Amino acid sequence: MKRGVFGWSSVYRKDASLSVLLVVQSFVTFVAIPLGASMGGSPWMLDLGMLAFAAVCAVTLTERLGVRVLLVVAIAALAFAPGLSTNDGAAAVHPVAAIVAFGFDVIVTGLVARLTFSSGPVTVHRIRGAVLVYLNVAVLFGIVYDLLYIVYPGSLHYSAGDAISPVAGVRLSDLSYFSLTTISTAGFGDIVPVHPVARGIANLESLFGQLFPAIVLSRLVSLNLVHSAAADASRREAGGEATEPLAASRSASMARRRRCPASSRSTSVRRRRSQSSGTPASRA
Q: CB of 183 within 8 A of CB of 138?
């Protein structure tokens, strides 16, 4: 079996990485982004979480050096480059950061989906990978809402009539929250899309949120059935190979009997006469 980083097998390393990535993505989505907004848009926890996310992706999800370098460079640019950092309040450069983040999440989501839904046994790590795809898609829609808000200010606002905060970190928290409530069809209604494009994107996200669980369930069940059938066939083949020597021995014995039928009948007659007279039969 092929060995990878830290001596783990490549297959196990990739499967286990899905669980690790789900933990990191959950921290970024449910802890780092809301806390960053509560601290006035400070992005340091978000930057650390995304750097950890990119590092795990680069080490485990792909063997291609080019993809690994692209993932690390994208996150490093988002976190540290002055012109791209989300901590920069300038609206003129923030779309570049959003586009880079969108490209990064598209690549990661594709790698995770390919690993999760590829042929093989359905493990608990792959089930967690499906949840990770779901969260990643919510993040992607959140980035789209952010870009839309920059292009069309006021395209989304609070139901009370207040505008979304112009601070990048706070706006990211608000739109991530809106994306999660939309994809899960919770729809609390405190943030509403008012621009036609925003409404269309929200409808698309809610439709995805409805269809994704059913599609994932059917795909994972079919993968498990195919893997079980293949395992049963392998066991049957192994059992057939084990019984072949005994079957060959029996066939050889029957062939010898067919070649010497007279000798077999005379031996049986002598045995019957010996049993009736009470004397042992002489050997032929």
A: yes
Helix (H) or strand (E) holding 55: helix 44-56
* Torsion, Cα of 106, 112, 113, 115 (10° steps): 140
Number of domains in the chain: 2
Are residues 219 and 269 located together in one domain of the fold?
no
Residue 282, in any domain of the structure:
no
What gap in Å lies between CA 141 and CA 101, rounded to an integer?
Answer: 12
Rounded to the nearest 10°, the torsion over CA 225, 227, 228, 233 is 120
Q: pLDDT tens across 70-111, in order? A: 877 777 776 665 444 444 444 444 677 788 888 888 989 999
- In this prediction the pTM is 0.74
98, 143 in Cβ contact below 8 A?
Answer: yes
Query: CB–CB of 33/143 below 8 Å?
Result: no
